[in-house]
C-alpha cells in the first residue's frame, strides 16, 4: 500500500492532535467523567471512525455540543449507564446508515440545528463560568444562568475563587487575541497555547487552583456491566439515547457539509459517514467512554494544515493513544479553570450571532425558530428543546405551504361565483369559512375547487357542512365544481 501524500498528512495529523488534546480533556472534565475518557473517545474517533469511509477529511472525537447532555445523563443515571447509552446510540446510527437515512438529516431545518447549538452554547458557557470560579454549578440550564449573579458575589468574597476566575478569564482573553498574534506564534493551536500559558502561570506563581484529576487510562476504561443494560427499560434513558442519536448525527452530517466546502477532494457519502460515526460510538460505548461526533474545529484545522487523505485523522488518533499511554501524568498539571475558559470560548463560538442577525433581516420566521429552540433548551432540556424547535419548523413550513386564495364574483344577480385556488389545509380553514359564511344567505352559490392543488380532509368536510347549511336556507343547492 502506497501513501502518496504521507508527508502532508503526517504534518496535518500533528496539528490536529495538538488542537484535539486540550479539547478532549476539557470536554471530559466538563461532562463530569474522568479526563482520560475524553482521550479514549478521541483515539476511537481517529483509529476507528477515521479509518472508515464517509468523509475523507472530517475528524471525530468528543464534542462541546454534547457536553451538557452527557453531564445530565451521568448525573441522572451514573457513569456505567453512559456506556449503555453511547453503545445504543452507535447501533442506532449503524442501522440508520444501513437504511440509507443519512441524507435525510440534511432535511432538518438549519435554524433548528443552529438553535440547538446556540442553546448548548449558552448552557455550556453558564456552567463553565462556575467551574472557572471553582464553584459547583446548579443542575438545570435556567438555574445556571439565573444563579450567575449570586455565584459572582460568592466569588468576590473568596480569594481562591477570584484567582481561579482570573485564570479562566485570562485563558479566554488569550484565545480571543490569539488570531492577532504573529504567524509564528499562531502555528501553535490557540487552545493548546492558552492552556500551556495558564499551566505555566500556575506553576511559576504557585496559584491555588484545582487541577485535572489523573485516574490512569486503564483504570478509567470501564465497560458497562450487564446490570446497566437493565436501565434500557426506563423512558428517560430511551429519551437520552434518541437525543444523543439525533444531535450527534445531525452535528456530524452538518459538519461534513461544512468541511466539503473547505476542500476540493472527494465529497462526503452521508450514509457511509453515519455508519462510520455509528461504529465509533459503538466502540466508545463498549469502552464506557464519551459519545463522539464530527468536530468542525478539528476538521477545519485538518483541512487548513494541508491534509489530503484520511491518513491524517488516523495518525492523530495514534498520537492521542501514545500521549495517553506514555504521558498520562502530564494531565495532572493542567489547571481546571483554564479548561473551563477553553470551553467558555467554544460555547461562545456555538452561538451563531451573525446568522441570527441575517435571518432576522431576511427570514424572520427562521430566526424565530432558532431563538425558540435555543430558549427551550435553556429553559426545559436538550431533548425537549430540540423537539420543540423541530415542531415549530414543521408548523412554519406547513403554514407557508398552505397558501390559499378565495375570489368572490358577485354580478348582483344570479349565482355568486366562488373560486378557491392553492392549498386548502386545516391551517387556513378559519379564513375560508369566514369568507364563505359572509356570502348572502338568499343567493345560490357556485363553488369552484378546480384551482386547488391540495384539499385536506378537514377542509373537505368543512366545505360539505357549509354547503349543506347554505342549501338548507331555502335557496338552490350549492353547485360544487370538484378539484383535480
TrEMBL record:
Annotated membrane topology: Multi-pass membrane protein
A Pfam family per the record: Sulfate_transp
Species: Streptomyces siamensis
Cellular location(s): Membrane
UniProt keyword annotations, A-Z: Membrane, Transmembrane, Transmembrane helix
Name of this chain's protein: SulP family inorganic anion transporter
Keyword Transmembrane tagged: yes
InterPro entries, sorted: SLC26A/SulP_dom, SLC26A/SulP_fam
